[in-house]
């Protein structure tokens, strides 16, 4: 029960932890607080809930006997021993916590006692000092009262004398003012003189009607007029510095000089220096370009060599450090003198600002013209680095000027100059690319015109090499140009980050103005090769076939590669306003198609000329019996063979129609099968044969001679053979043949048949055209006797 009583003396917070309950109980016991005292609970603390249960150890109504009786009744002996041990442990823990709490609070109480003792000593000293201060204040009050009582009778007299003394000093200043002004003028102390006059001006004007002040006023006016004249003279001097000009304007304004006239005077004076700066820039432009004005002597070569003129970066630096610096100084000085003055009229500020804006715009336009002229001279140079640095420096300086004079916007004009310089560089590079392409064509012409040492096969091989060299050279040149133009969009360039420059430059200038324009130029040049007046051509056929293949390669790969390269390097984002790649593909393909068609016509015309001359220059009525194939037919076969090798180097074989089973016309089969073949062209001069021939033409397929050529070797050769044989046919129709003339035509056509079938897509086409040639010769023969096929075969084999 004693243990229970000791534990019951510690109240418990129902919603607190064990440690918190212990500390609260300990503090209550230490300070002797009653269990029911609730008034000392600080605000915000947890409220102690009183329990009415007599068995609650922490409650105020705890009854030890009742709790012990219930515990004995409800618990076993073992549980009672455990409960006893638990209470012993709790009591020991509470005792230990109590000792710790008392020790900690003891240290705090000791420290608080020391602090209170120290404060008591400090307050004692402070009380002594306050007593001493009170005694001093009393002494001061007594002394002040003594002085006031002593001087009370003379106060009004002293005040009056002080006023008289001040008035006398002012009058003395007025009487001495003319002499002071004269001395200030002699010593050029204009600021001091204007200050003297400004101090006395109001009084002099107020009392100028009095005789004594009238003379002083007149003398001062004479001195001020002289002072004003010297200020105006200094104001108009070219050697005056900006500080002196500012001082003169300020003094003149204080003296009542009209502000508008001073604005005009100041701007006129400043214009002389700025005009000299513009003149120096124009001299540098003339020196660099080599131009001379009327009356100027031509410099000697040594002078030109030693002083060739400034480069564009030095020119821009000279303009920025000279003209723009002086312009900024003029603007700043003008603002300080006429616009940033306190207590100025708003209308005066408006007039002054308008005059300044007109003045600055006029001179800046001259400066911009000089910069345009100098940048224009740089379009033919090869290096972009100096030009880009110069334009960047020019653009940066203009941005600073905009801040100095907000009512003007020079950035637009500066951006136009920068953009124009960039466009000029693009135009120069486009011109150089066009010239490079022309040089490539010239090199190909020279290589084609060079004598062939190793034979035709070597010539055919050189076509592919020439094409490859031209393609590689053009692409590398364009890549080099794009690399050079990247200097305009470098990260450290100010205007390169501006969207109003970067967007148009990358999309319109580089992509459209360079890459697309060059592709269009190539297509235009290729189309120009097809515009040949009459039947004459100055372009070698090999050049036409090379250019045709070059255009096809542009369509297949080069255009896509170049556009992708430009868009990646220059980050072209506006794809809506640019030329579509499909349009360029169609343009290149059309140019290649036209070149290939023109090549077929040119080669067909060359062979046709040989055949026409061979037919027109021979007497077919009186010719001798044929013993061999004419040389022109051998030449035709040789030329077509050379064309086949030439085209084969640049184009694929192509698709041929399935050959017929009748291979008797092949050369290597003639010797074994010529006895078994049915005689060919065994025509008789009868109406029946003519009628049958016409009927056969009605049911045969129409041969289109000048049809479009496909991009393959077989198609090209087919077109050439069709043109050649058609020419041969028309020439035969214009001649009259004798017996041996007809037989010679038989031999020639059979020889052509032996060799030409391998070059065309359909051998029946050759067969039909040659049949028409022989039929036409038969119809125009006066003695149509055909030669035996065996004899024809023998002659052709021997040929």
UniProtKB/TrEMBL annotation:
Residues 654-665 have a biased composition (Basic and acidic residues). Residues 1-24, 654-677 are annotated as: Disordered. Signal peptide: none annotated. Residues 59-285 form the Exocyst complex component EXOC2/Sec5 N-terminal domain. GO terms for biological process: endocytic recycling; Golgi organization; Golgi vesicle transport; lipid transport; lysosomal transport; protein transport; retrograde transport, endosome to Golgi. GO terms for cellular component: cytosol; EARP complex; GARP complex; membrane. The keyword Transport applies. Keywords: Golgi apparatus, Lipid transport, Protein transport, Transport. It is found in: Golgi apparatus, trans-Golgi network. It comes from the Eukaryota. Belongs to the VPS51 family. PANTHER family: VACUOLAR PROTEIN SORTING-ASSOCIATED PROTEIN 51 HOMOLOG (PTHR15954). Component of the Golgi-associated retrograde protein (GARP) complex. Acts as component of the GARP complex that is involved in retrograde transport from early and late endosomes to the trans-Golgi network (TGN). This is Vacuolar protein sorting-associated protein 51 homolog. It comes from Arion vulgaris.
């Amino acid at each position: 029960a004693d243990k229970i009583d000791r534990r019951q003396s510690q109240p418990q917070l129902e919603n607190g932890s064990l440690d918190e309950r212990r500390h609260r109980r300990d503090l209550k016991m230490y300070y002797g607080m009653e269990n029911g005292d609730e008034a000392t609970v600080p605000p915000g603390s947890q409220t102690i809930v009183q329990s009415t249960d007599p068995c609650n150890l922490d409650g105020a109504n705890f009854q030890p006997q009742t709790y012990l009786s219930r515990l004995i009744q409800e618990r076993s002996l073992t549980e009672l021993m455990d409960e006893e041990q638990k209470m012993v442990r709790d009591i020991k823990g509470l005792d230990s916590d109590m000792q710790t709490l008392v020790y900690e609070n003891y240290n705090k109480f000791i420290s608080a006692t020391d602090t209170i003792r120290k404060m008591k000593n400090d307050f004692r000293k402070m009380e002594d000092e306050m007593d001493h201060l009170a005694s001093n204040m009393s002494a001061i009050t007594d002394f002040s009262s003594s002085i006031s009582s002593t001087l009370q009778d003379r106060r009004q007299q002293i005040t009056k004398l002080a006023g008289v003394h001040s008035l006398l000093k002012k009058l003395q200043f007025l009487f001495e003012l003319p002499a002071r002004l004269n001395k200030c003028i002699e010593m050029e102390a204009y600021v001091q003189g204007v200050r003297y006059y400004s101090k006395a001006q109001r009084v002099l004007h107020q009392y100028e009607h009095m005789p004594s002040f009238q003379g002083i006023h007149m003398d001062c006016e004479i001195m001020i007029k002289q002072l004003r004249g010297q200020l105006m003279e200094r104001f108009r001097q070219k050697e005056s510095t900006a500080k002196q000009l500012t001082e003169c304007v300020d003094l003149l304004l204080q003296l009542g000089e009209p502000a508008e006239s001073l604005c005009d005077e100041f701007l006129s004076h400043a214009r002389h220096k700025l005009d000299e700066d513009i003149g120096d820039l124009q001299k540098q432009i003339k020196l660099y370009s080599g131009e001379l004005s009327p009356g100027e002597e031509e410099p000697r070569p040594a002078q030109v060599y030693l002083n060739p003129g400034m480069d564009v970066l030095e020119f821009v630096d000279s303009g920025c450090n000279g003209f723009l610096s002086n312009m900024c100084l003029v603007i700043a000085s003008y603002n300080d003198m006429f616009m940033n003055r306190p207590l100025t009229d708003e209308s005066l500020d408006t007039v002054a600002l308008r005059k300044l804006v007109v003045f600055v715009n006029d001179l800046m336009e001259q400066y911009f013209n000089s910069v345009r002229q100098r940048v224009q001279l740089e379009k033919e140079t090869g290096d972009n680095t100096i030009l880009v640095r110069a334009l960047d420096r020019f653009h940066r300086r203009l941005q600073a000027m905009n801040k100095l004079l907000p009512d003007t916007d020079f950035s637009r004009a500066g951006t136009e100059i920068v953009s124009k310089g960039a466009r000029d560089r693009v135009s120069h590079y486009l011109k150089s690319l066009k010239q490079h392409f022309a040089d490539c064509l010239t090199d190909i012409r020279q290589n084609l015109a060079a004598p062939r040492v190793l034979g035709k096969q070597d010539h055919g091989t050189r076509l592919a090499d020439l094409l490859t060299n031209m393609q590689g050279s053009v692409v590398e040149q364009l890549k080099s140009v794009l690399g050079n133009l990247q200097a305009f969009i470098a990260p450290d360039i100010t205007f390169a980050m501006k969207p109003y420059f970067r967007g148009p430059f990358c999309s319109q200038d580089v992509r459209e103005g360079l890459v697309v324009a060059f592709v269009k130029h190539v297509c235009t040049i290729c189309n120009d090769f097809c515009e040949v007046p009459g039947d004459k051509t100055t372009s070698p056929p090999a050049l036409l076939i090379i250019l045709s293949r070059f255009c096809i390669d542009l369509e297949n790969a080069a255009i896509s590669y170049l556009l992708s390269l430009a868009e990646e390097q220059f980050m072209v984002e506006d794809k809506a306003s640019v030329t579509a790649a499909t349009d360029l593909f169609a343009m290149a393909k059309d140019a290649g198609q036209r070149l290939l068609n023109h090549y077929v016509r040119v080669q067909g015309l060359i062979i046709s000329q040989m055949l026409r001359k061979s037919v027109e220059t021979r007497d077919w009525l009186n010719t001798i019996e044929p013993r061999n194939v004419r040389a022109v037919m051998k030449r035709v076969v040789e030329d077509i063979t050379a064309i086949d090798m030439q085209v084969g180097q640049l184009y694929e074989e192509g698709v041929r129609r399935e050959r017929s089973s009748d291979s008797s016309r092949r050369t290597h089969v003639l010797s074994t099968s010529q006895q078994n073949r049915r005689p060919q062209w065994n025509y008789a001069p009868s109406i029946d044969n003519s009628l049958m021939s016409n009927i056969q033409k009605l049911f045969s397929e129409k041969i289109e001679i000048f049809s479009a050529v496909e991009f393959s070797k077989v198609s090209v050769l087919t077109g050439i053979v069709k043109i050649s044989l058609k020419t041969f046919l028309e020439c035969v129709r214009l001649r009259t043949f004798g017996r041996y003339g007809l037989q010679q035509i038989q031999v020639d056509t059979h020889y052509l048949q032996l060799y030409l079938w391998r070059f065309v897509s359909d051998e029946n086409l050759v067969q039909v055209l040659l049949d028409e040639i022989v039929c036409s010769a038969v119809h125009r023969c006066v003695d149509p006797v055909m030669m035996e096929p065996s004899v024809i075969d023998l002659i052709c084999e021997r040929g």
